[in-house]
Structure formats: C-alpha cells, structure tokens
Design brief:
Blueprint: H1 14-17, H2 20-27, H3 35-49, E1 51-52, H4 54-57, H5 61-67, E2 77-78, H6 80-93, E3 97-102, E4 113-119, E5 122-126, H7 132-136, H8 148-165, H9 172-183, H10 187-196, H11 203-228, H12 236-246, E6 250-253, E7 262-264, H13 266-276, H14 280-287, H15 295-312, H16 322-336, H17 339-343, E8 345-351, E9 359-365, E10 375-380, E11 385-388, H18 391-399, E12 407-411, H19 424-432, H20 452-474
Parallel strand pairs: 1-2
Antiparallel strand pairs: 3-4, 4-5, 6-7, 8-9, 8-12, 9-10, 10-11
Length: 475
Amino acid sequence: MIPNFKMTNLHDYKDLIKTEKIENILKNIPDGLTKLEQAYYVYIELGKIVKEDPKFVFSTIEEKKERYNDAIDEQLFGICKSISELYVSLLKELGIDADLIKNIPEEKALSHVDTVLKIDGKKYIVNLISDLANIKSKRRINSFGINIEEVLKNRTNHVMEHFKQLGITDNNIEEMLRKAQQENNYEGIHALIDSIFPRENKDGPKLHETINRLKTISNYIHNIKETYGEITPLSKKEKEKMDMKLGYSYGSIVFESDAEPRGIYINDVFHILAEEMKDPETVNKYVYGGIDVPEKEQLEYKLKYIFNIMDKCIPKNGETSYLDETMNINRLSENLLTASELERITLFAVKTTQDVRDLTSILQVKPMNKDGENMYYIYSKEERKYAPIEISALKETLSNLDPAQFKIVGKGRELIGRLYKLRPEDILEIFEKSTQSLGEETFPEQKISENKDKVVSTMNRQQKQLDEKEKRTGE
C-alpha cells in the first residue's frame, strides 16, 4: 500500500444528504439503471448544483492550505476534495464502493483528488470538478471513466511540443522521456535543460516545471496501477449511450462519422459555428448583418455574436457560477475567433465586496492600432450575460469602489490562483493604456540562439552519461 495515497477521515455529509436538493438526486434515480449508470446519473445531477469555490481558487497558497480540508458548505461551494467526498457519500447510499485518491500522496494539502469507482469487478477514475462547467452547459462529459494512458500520452506530447517551441527538435528527447518515465529518474532531462539554457534565460525554469508536471502525472498513474491494477476507461460511444438513456444529450442524430444515432451536445453547436465562421458569406450575413464592416470593427461584431450565442444557445443546466460563465466565453472565443483576435482580449475577475464569491467580470478588448481605444464589456449577474460599457461609466464605477475591498483576483484566459492587489486608480491607469498587454505569456517563435548542432551534441553527451550511469548501477 502506498502511504497516504487513499484518503481516509472523510467528512460526514449525512445531514447535507438529507437536504432537499441532495435528497432529490437519490429519490429521482430512474429505474432499470446499472450500478455504473447510477454512478453516472449522480455524477451529472450533483454536477448541476455544486460549484467550485472562488474563495479557494482566488487565494494565496497559504490560504489554500488552510482551506484544503474544509467541508463543502450549505451553498454547495467546494473544491476537488470536498466535492469528491460528497459524491462518494452519495454513492455509498446506493451501495456503490468508491475511494478518494491523491495525485501527490506526500502532499498534505493542495494535492488534487480523484475518485475511483469499484463496480462489478472493474475500476474507473472520475473527476467531477473538472466536468462542472461541461455539465452545466450540456457539453460532452470528459472526466467520467478517464483513460489514464491517454492522459500520460497527451502530457508527454505537451512536453515534446514545448521543446519544439524552443527550437529543440531532436528525436533523442522522446527516448530520454520514455526512459525517465520507466525508471522514474528525470535527472538527465533536467541536466540537459541546464546545459542548453544559460542561467539568466527564463525558458529553462519553465521547461523544468513542464518536466516536473509530467513526472507528477507519471508517478500518479504508476500509483493507481500498483494499487488498483487495471483501470477501465469509458469511450465516447459508451458515454453517448448513457447520455441518451439518461436524457442528458439532446435528441438523436446520425453524423457521417457515426455508425449509429447519438445525442447532440453543445460541443456540436460550437463545431458547426466554427465551420461557419470559415465561410465569408455566412459571417457577413449572420455576424455582420449583411453590411460592409471595417476590419478594425469586426471583432466588436464577433463578440456581440458570441454573447448572443451564450445567451440564447447555451443552456443553464443547473446553478452556474462566475467560473462556469468564463469557461463558456473562453471556449466559444477559442472556437470562433482568430489567434490575433484572441490576443487582443483580456478577461478580468474583479472583487468589489468582502465576498470573493461576488465577482464581477470585465472584458477588455485592445484596438488593432496603437492610436485606437479599448472596448469594454461587463457581465450582468441579473441578466446572466455580457454587455458593452463605456469607459466613462467603467471609470465612474471603479472610482466609487472602496479601495480596501477592490481587487483584480485573476486575468487572462486561465484565471486560476493569481491575486492582483491593485487599487482602483491603478486599474484606471491600466484601462487607459490602450496598448497595454495583459494576456497570458506566449512562447516567442525562436527562443534560443544556439544552433541545432550544439543542441544535438549536448543531448548526445547527456545520453552517454546516462548510459554509463545505468551500466555502473547494473554492475
């Protein structure tokens, strides 16, 4: 048994389960479901009403450590750990066995928590918190029956892509990563990074962090296999069948790529819209309203189109939070806007009261030209949609805020775990600088000055050292 891998001393949610919202989930389970389908039904229905807690997301590391072991509260705000605890408690009411596991066993706080379902001799990995925004908007559910081998493969590909972005393309890296995963020894990779990048170069630390994340996932999957043996993944087809049976997906349709009917998801709507955005005639008709729109104004029209889709097309399938709504705009924007248009947009999460759960979303759009002006949109919680706001009105709103309460708690397309302790006047200064770049950092096209021969030589030398070390160990 791997120490601290399985979680014990879980919160007792007997009283919470007796509340109307939670009790109705168990009462309304359809007849004739298998145990796996029951677990899936509870996963969906609980996902409609629980919410990721902004108090945890937008807090410092020390504050996160203090709150990590908190129970889910009466408003059903929680984090991966507490939401998973409640899910397992409901499953036990149905006689379904399940464990909670930590991706970093030695981490007492802040480790991510997944659920292992043990049903009919099979084990499944599920992660409810990552599907909350999907469930609330009827998108495909991704994290019920996770394919852990695919997760490791995707993370490894991400590392390889990171190397390529930095101009390092030698095939030996993939072999080194494979050996590192097999032997759980990444010293060679880290040494290689140090030998390529000078100490003052910022790319080295970023690449080290990418490798460390791969190591964490690789170790986690190793721990899962050692503890539970074979893990059963659920395919898209299997989940599509359950979705249709439970009425989660819309209607029934046969796509050219499908051999049998399946339900429709909001993902399909996004895909269709993205394809239509490639057709100039369709864009002109539905986005620009049939008029000739100057290039510098086209993004404004596209955002209005996106906000209308959010308002009219995306279902409010449960209780949504600020984080769910920003997830929707992120995904729609990524589907419908160009890379250059996305670079002009910055999304701010703004706390204006004592309660960080009471967030305001401000979207800033930079102009195409340096002499242009920013555009702004603000999210209306009452109408649950974005609307344009003049800079004068925004300034007035900000200037009337209490500096002690005001904070930008996140920005960019991720909005996770960053706290900006800025005063309202600081924000006004940022907003007035129309060319200020506040988005996520990206990798420049060329990051290193060394030529390919030097990189390959360094890698070959490092691989030789690893081989010699391995030989000595064997002897």
